């Protein structure tokens, strides 16, 4: 816990967040650690089956008020599974987002950003990163390159913009980032990589751009944050020093993206006349 708080200080988490130790005894021995994005029932079962003592996740298990931990609810079942398995759970969420290096640095690296700087600030903490590519790419080529560096997810990347347009300056924000459009515009970014882009904010952002920049890429919440895990594993091992020799640290390979498959709905470039009365 001391190492984790050194790398991802709890006081740097946003005021609404719930980070730190969720289950477990600070005095219990730890010989095997697993890192994951989400503390889902499947991830907890994977950790239990692997003999893990400490599960470190990016997303909190208990973010809002809980009045029962009965196993009739998924949250209750998760808490029960953790306690029965003597499995400690520790959360590093927005404090891992703002760490240097942290979640956004991992995403910026995957996007090919060099010499990045904070995109914006909230509660005196930097959110997101903006910087330039080593060389310009078409929007399509950039999206394809990014897709090749992200973990595979069923929905893939959603892209808004001219595929042949040239992009060089890139803004990134791991996880949900549709609240940062003003900062993205002010940064001069050609393309914004984030996730969980809702219809109305994304549509308004494209309207404000008048078809130009910033273009948008929704790369998925889980995928944009999973990238952080391997770097966190390496930094935790390094900070443990000699003690790392007696501790196994692994990254969960389980996909916790909620979507399972994608069904194409036709070519959106076709006109009304080419379909049976459908919209352009």
From TrEMBL:
Residues the entry annotates as binding a divalent metal cation: 58-59, 97, 221, 225
Family annotation (InterPro entries): DUF34/NIF3, DUF34/NIF3_sf
Region (Disordered): 257-280
GO molecular function, one term: metal ion binding
SUPFAM superfamilies xrefs: NIF3 (NGG1p interacting factor 3)-like
UniProt keyword terms in alphabetical order: Metal-binding
Listed Basic and acidic residues bias regions: 269-280
GO cellular component: cytoplasm
NCBIfam families: YbgI_SA1388 (TIGR00486)
PANTHER family: GTP CYCLOHYDROLASE 1 TYPE 2 HOMOLOG (PTHR13799:SF14), NGG1 INTERACTING FACTOR 3 (PTHR13799)
Assembly information from the UniProt record: Homohexamer.
Family: Belongs to the GTP cyclohydrolase I type 2/NIF3 family.
Annotated protein name in UniProt: GTP cyclohydrolase 1 type 2 homolog
């Amino acid at each position: 816990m001391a190492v984790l708080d050194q790398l991802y200080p709890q006081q740097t988490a946003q005021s609404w967040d719930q980070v730190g130790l969720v289950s477990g005894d600070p005095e219990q021995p730890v010989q095997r650690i697993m890192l994951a994005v989400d503390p889902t029932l499947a991830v907890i079962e994977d950790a239990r089956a692997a003999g893990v003592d400490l599960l470190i996740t990016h997303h909190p298990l208990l973010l809002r008020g809980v009045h029962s931990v009965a196993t009739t609810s998924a949250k209750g079942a998760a808490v029960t599974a953790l306690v029965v398995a003597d499995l400690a759970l520790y959360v590093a969420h927005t404090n891992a987002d703002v760490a240097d290096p942290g979640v956004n640095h991992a995403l910026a690296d995957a996007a090919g950003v060099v010499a990045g700087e904070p995109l914006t600030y909230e509660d005196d903490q930097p959110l997101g990163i903006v910087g330039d590519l080593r060389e310009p790419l078409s929007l399509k080529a950039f999206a394809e390159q990014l897709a090749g560096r992200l973990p595979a997810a069923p929905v893939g990347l959603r892209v808004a913009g001219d595929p042949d347009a040239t992009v060089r300056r890139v803004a990134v924000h791991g996880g949900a980032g549709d609240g940062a459009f003003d900062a993205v515009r002010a940064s001069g970014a050609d393309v914004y990589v984030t996730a969980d882009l809702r219809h109305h904010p994304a549509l308004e952002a494209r309207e404000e751009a008048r078809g130009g920049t910033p273009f948008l890429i929704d790369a998925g919440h889980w995928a944009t944050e999973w990238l952080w895990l391997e770097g966190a594993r390496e930094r935790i091992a390094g900070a443990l020093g000699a003690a790392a020799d007696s501790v196994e640290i692994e990254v969960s390979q389980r996909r916790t993206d909620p979507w399972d498959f994608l069904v194409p709905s036709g070519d959106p470039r076709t006109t009304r006349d080419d379909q049976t009365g459908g919209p352009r």
